[in-house]
Amino acid sequence: MFLIKNFGKNIQCGSGPELVAKLAELYSGMSVSIQFKLRSGMKHIEYVDVSNAGAISYTYEKDKPFDMGKLEKIATA
Prior knowledge:
This protein is α+β, with helices and mostly antiparallel strands. It contains two helices and five strands. It has helices at about 15-25, 70-75; strands spanning about 1-5, 10-15, 30-35, 45-50, 55-60. Strands 2-1-3-4-5 form a five-stranded antiparallel β-sheet, with helices on one face.
């Protein structure tokens, strides 16, 4: 489960494809955090920017492509 947070405009997503769709649909032109639990039980946060066109990039690692597959692998179900 993923939680998109942006100053009170928070939405839970149950899967990677849903997360990507919600980011593009509801958060274009914004910077948000994606929160989820790791398999160890620790909370993990990724900070991303969503372009006006819906493209997702890491806020602090612009040269690194956003990898939804990686997030799905390290997140708990």
